[in-house]
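In pairs, describe these two lines:
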Amino acid sequence: MTLEDLGKFRGSKIAGNFSPLGDANKGKGPLDPQEEYIFELVDGDSKPMKSGQSAEDKAAGKEPVKKMNAALTWKEVNSGILVFQHLQIETLSWGKGPSDPFRSKVLKFMEDIGIPAPKDVLPAWGNVFIKTMKIRARVVQSTRGGNPVPDEYIFKEGSFRAYKV
């Protein structure tokens, strides 16, 4: 399956401002960052997003490179609270092992939830991100400019686990 195949899932909101998710989460109550929750994938898409840019390139007026990202919207199964996640999937780094800080976040995510990520083999993304799949994870409140944003959450890095019934 190709990146284009992943693009068949539509509707994820990608922006620096996650307010559409915050609006959807209003009145559903807060999630506790100390608790682990079960999340179901409700929407996935592959979209090009601007990647980071060096100060030199920015000063030279160069346009940021766009890289393919998986844009995922997860729903906490009990409260219905939505959490957005994006993972860079175009270029992957396997690093020197699972604890290498340069290892791609998407590979760490896959291993955390029990999906093997063989070295130097591009995953079939359509078989990795499947609507209705479930994971266990913790969340933290989203911030903007250092201030907490009500009703918006992001996943706590490294908190992913496989969901087992």
